[in-house]
Amino acid sequence: MDWSKRNPLLGGVLLVCALLLAAEVWLWRSAREQAARALAALEQKKQERSSLAAQSPALSAATEQAIGQDLDQAAKVLAGLRAALQPREGKAPAGPAPAESIDAYFDVAAFVEKTRALAARAQVVLRPEECFGFSTHTNEGPEKELVPAVHRQRQAAHYLLEALLEARPQALLGVQRERPMTEAQRARRNLPGAPAAKAAANTGGQATDFFEVDALSSLRLPGRIECEAFRLEFTGQTPALRAFLNSLAAGPRPVVVRRVEVERLTAEAPSTANLPAGAPVPLVAQNLSRFAVVVECVELLPAPERSTP
User: Fold this and answer.
1) What global pTM score does this model have?
2) Most CB contacts within 10 A, which of 73, 90, 101, 207?
3) Where are the beta strands (DSSP E) in 109-252?
């Protein structure tokens, strides 16, 4: 303390030198850290360059041209698929959609009555209470928000059942459909990039009318393809199934068969009572099977506009 009082100037100089030295050390450490970060970034860029150079095919003008050709080919394939899934007849479905719930009720009732008459003409056995997947609306129409969805399902069911009854199975055991969705729910599900939609909320009704489609096996694609799924169960011989599937393949509406289940029923021994004398006895009985066919009626949504780079 005595020395610093006797030499204040020298003490001040030493203090300034100490501060300058501390600042120099701090600057040196900062520069060293910046250099380390820059070196790490350089090494990362080198690794990225090596990774890009090792890609197969390597990035080049020729590769870019090949990728462009592949994209053009994929666009042609997509256009062909869209054309194949378009209705083969340019006619709109007959009749406008009902406006009110009561109108939808009478529409479903008329459909059930006409389909029962068609089954009687085709000599196809039905359950006495058969409503073809619409027993929920035996006494009342759907909620107003569900009228458009139920109408679409009714039209699709009419098309499918006409094809099935023309194939003349022995008996129709039942028809099931997906639970209908409101227009708002359907619009959200159809947004491009939307996640896989869950089943529609349980809105009541007869549980036997409905079934749930496996989302992984469904053809539905948000923003591009919408479907109405049905499960039809019937008994008959294999030619009836084959005729039904061929009718769907050649029909005007795009329909995709997602699953066919077959259960062989007990065969009866061939009867010889009505055979003429001396006629050969058939060795193979006319076996009956129970068939369950899951189909999706396809609806292509308007293609999204492509943004130009």
Assistant:
1) 0.65
2) 101
3) 171-177, 225-236
Of residues 253, 260, 258, the one with CA closest to residue 297: 253
Q: What strand order describes the sheet that includes 255-264?
A: 171-177, 225-236, 289-300, 255-264
Note if the bond before 270 is cis, omega within 30 degrees. Answer: no
Q: What are phi and psi of 103, to 5 degrees?
A: -65, -40
Kindly tell me the sign of the dihedral angle through the C-alpha atoms of 217, 219, 224, 228: negative
Question: Distance between CA 22 and CA 11 in Å, rounded?
Answer: 17
Q: What is the per-residue burial (b if ≥16 Cβ within 10 Å, else e) of 27-63?
A: eeeeeeeeeeeeeeeeeeeeeeeeeeeeeeeeeeeee
Angle made by CA atoms 164, 256, 300, in degrees to the nearest 5: 120
Rounded to 5°, angle at Cα 11 from 7 and 16:
150
pLDDT for the residue 58: 60
User: Strand (E) positions, 152-288?
Assistant: 171-177, 225-236, 255-264
Measured at the CA of 250, the angle between CA 248 and CA 253, to 5 degrees, comes to 65
Domain borders along the chain are: 84-197+206-265+287-300
Q: What is the per-residue pLDDT for 64? A: 73
